[in-house]
Amino acid sequence: MRSDISLKQIAAASGLSVSTVSRVLREQPGTSAAARRAVAVALGTLGVRHGDEAARSGTVIAVVHAAPLAGDVDPFESLYLEIVERIFALGWVAVRIQTGPDLASAAEVLESFGVAGAVVLGGGSAGPEAQRLAAHGVPVIRVSNARHEGFAQLVLDSGEGIRTAVRHLIHLGHRRIGLVVPEDSAASTRVSAFRRAMADVLHIPATRDQAPVVVAGPGILAGSQAADELLEAQCSAAISCAPAITFGFLESTRRLRLAVPQDFSLLTVGDMPDAEVIHPPMSQVTFDWAALAEAALRELERLMRADGAGAAGSGAGGSGVGAAGAGGGRTPQLPDYRVSPELVLRASERAIGRR
Q: Are 97 and 152 in a shared domain?
């Protein structure tokens, strides 16, 4: 199998979108026969083996994350695409596993493909799948906004992201700032970081009234409702912690005939698909997704090597990290890194003017 093929190259060769190519490669239901033929021709043209032959001849890596709920936007899509491109570059095979009700379990994919390692993005329904993969002896590394005990992990420092956003907006003269967070495992950490930052920089108690917070459900409509709450609370700026929330804010301000950033400043923390091309281009506190993907796969490869050595040294019937530990061998040290974000300024926030 060639080691220099990316999803974008397959999409270009087949005339399909990257998302359609991804669905065909994952053999998801609903792809057309024409799309499958186009991908097969493109793979042959590019010299890539696909299907069972590829699974038998290459190292299969599962990329696991929770399927977005109806109307929601996947907050890890940029990282997923970077990880898959690097898996292809290593000459490995990527299998995307979206978790949730009525979706295939990672254990089923393990039996079909023989997964050598897994990268688990985020939490929610992806968490139990990480546990199941680990129970099967598959090396797992997690990348999410919260810490998960017992796993190698890269923790995205959402608290530092919130503090960076608060400091920037206060520097622009905003004093009435609101926060909207998705209802997930990192919500309390984000809210605490927001209130501490508001208190430390503005020297105020940062009560619920002085530092308004909305915990929003999934989907753009929930983001729009959260925006309405903060606008009613007379906020001049807001920090959004999910793509769907940000899109909801933009929808709400347009409906109310408010302009971003002229009438209201908006800063997003985390991933924001096409942040540079939407209107207005979205300023964000975000992460270097390419560097994160490289670090995750580097650590996973190290765990896979250690797992192989443990299995080889454990004798007949032993396999994986668990067998090595049970036999008195050295369990590989689990990496646990906290990753700090960076501020990328575009055009969705501005210094507050006189009212």
A: yes
Q: How many domains does the chain have?
A: 3
Lateral strand order in the sheet of 93-99 = 93-99, 60-66, 117-121, 140-144, 152-156, 336-339
Question: φ and ψ at 83, to 5 degrees?
Answer: -65, -45
- The string of pLDDT tens digits covering residues 254-285 is 999 999 999 999 999 998 888 999 999 999 99
**Can you give the pLDDT at residue 72?**
77
At residue 111 the predicted structure's pLDDT band, cuts being 50, 70 and 90, is low
CB atoms within 10 A of CB 51: 12
Amino acid letter for position 83: I
- Cα–Cα distance, 295 to 155 (Å, whole number): 12
| Residues spanned by the domain of 279 | 158-286
Top-confidence residue, 70 or 19: 19
Q: Are 61 and 117 in contact (CB under 8 A)?
A: yes
Query: Which tokens go with 40?
Result: 């097969």
Q: Which residue has the higher pLDDT, 30 or 346?
A: 346
- CATH number of the structural domain spanning residue 113: 3.40.50.2300
Long-range contacts of 105-110 (CB under 8 A, 24+ apart): 105/129, 105/132, 106/62, 106/64, 106/132, 106/133, 107/132, 107/133, 107/136, 109/62, 110/62, 110/136, 110/138
Question: Is 234 found in the same domain as 246?
Answer: yes
pLDDT at 3: 39
Peptide bond preceding 68: is omega within 30 degrees of 0, i.e. cis?
no
| Residue 154, phi then psi, degrees to nearest 5 | -115, 115
Q: Are strands 284-286 and 342-344 parallel, antiparallel or unpaired?
A: antiparallel
Q: Where are the alpha helices (DSSP H) in 49-177?
A: 52-57, 77-89, 106-113, 126-135, 158-171
Q: How far from 333 is each of 126, 153, 306, CA to CA, in Å?
A: 23, 11, 9
152 and 199 in a single domain? The answer is: no
What's the CA gap between 183 and 68, in Å, rounded? 13
Assess whether 183 and 281 both reside in one domain.
yes
| SS3 (DSSP) at 86 | helix
Position 342 in a domain: no
Q: How far apart are the C-alpha atoms of 229 and 297, rounded to whole Å?
A: 41
